[in-house]
Amino acid sequence: xxxxxxxxxxxxxxxxxxxxxxxxxxxxxxxxxxxxxxxxxxxxxxxxxxxxxxxxxxxxxxxxxxxxxxxxxxxxxxxxxxxxxxxxxxxxxxxxxxxxxxxxxxxxxxxxxxxxxxxxxxxxxxxxxxxxxxxxxxxxxxxxxxxxxxxxxxxxxxxxxxxxxxxxxxxxxxxxxxxxxxxxxxxxxxxxxxxxxxxxxxxxxxxxxxxxxxxxxxxxxxxxxxxxxxxxxxxxxxxxxxxxxxxxxxxxxxxxxxxxxxxxxxxxxxxxxxxxxxxxxxxxxxxxxxxxxxxxxxxxxxxxxxxxxxxxxxxxxxxxxxxxxxxxxxxxxxxxxxxxxxxxxxxxxxxxxxxxxxxxxxxxxxxxxxxxxxxxxxxxxxxxxxxxxxxxxxxxxxxxxxxxxxxxxxxxxxxxxxxxxxxxxxxxxxxxxxxxxxxxxxxxxxxx
Length: 448
Fold this sequence. Notes:
Largest sheet: 6 strands, antiparallel
Distance between the termini: 143 Å
Number of strands: 36
CATH class of the largest domain: Mainly Beta
Low-confidence stretches: 1-34
Oligomer: single chain
Shape: rod-shaped
């Protein structure tokens, strides 16, 4: 190695600056760079070619004092005075050379950063100028993952330390720096070589794992990435059914059509962790805002029928069904289609009510008059407090009275039937029976 004498004061000053600035640079080299967080040095403090399962080697060595593992022993090179062997150097006359680290089987690393500290020696000029940083998993096929050219003006008086970062999502067992040029020396040297990896994502979760949306709705999904200081927290968002639901690069979901879709977020740092949310898209529920009947009043004669129509708004309401009810079924009945049947004289209110939860309603007042084609109105009062009214002819009245007298004498059937209009169009005939035992009294009114 080249030798040169310098005075002791200069040596002391250089040692002080080297220790101070070297420590400062080392502290800056670990931890964070910009917004990226890195691990500590992945290479253990080497005390030989193999330490803690990690093996180092080189293409050539200057001598037994400047061998490969000396670039990883963390004993920083002291200011040059005579021969000092705390660094690695290529054989004299060979500028090109490589320095390699083998992390071992099953201990592959995803290196994203390395640091180089130059050898401390005046007029050294042996620090790397141009090189490639390479990775391999078989020690034969090498991939260039970083390259540098014209790295000039190393401050060899203090053993300058420089750091280099790059993108790498692949884990390799072997790494090497392959030097192709230096500042002009007949050999190349490195005092210390460190390697770090960006801290990877260990877990990712979404704020929702299932979600239900209506067509046209939007929903922002939020991802939680751990650890908080992971180097690359970027996620790739994807929908397995974009025809049903789409997702943009920020996790914003848009419901497109009825169906289901799985929204998946995948880490981009090479850890390939995923988390997902199953989205069910439904038709939007449109509630009824108004209901109106086609008639507000109806006048009917006993036995007649009429049909009410209920119109709901808006026209595209999800559930347009209504329930029909009569306030007085003994006067007028109504079926599920809105058909009214007049039973007996009196008044009844027919109401249509929505069933979509809005509970809106509209009503029609029905006035029923007796059928004047008959002769009398027979009103039967029952023992339970109710009453029945029937518009009948004189012949029908005589028949009823004969039945009643016979039954009072214990003769004949225990019931009497009255013909009534069918309650709906699906029936052709209706007979209403009155039990003799239920009759308390009856009244006959003769029509004019």
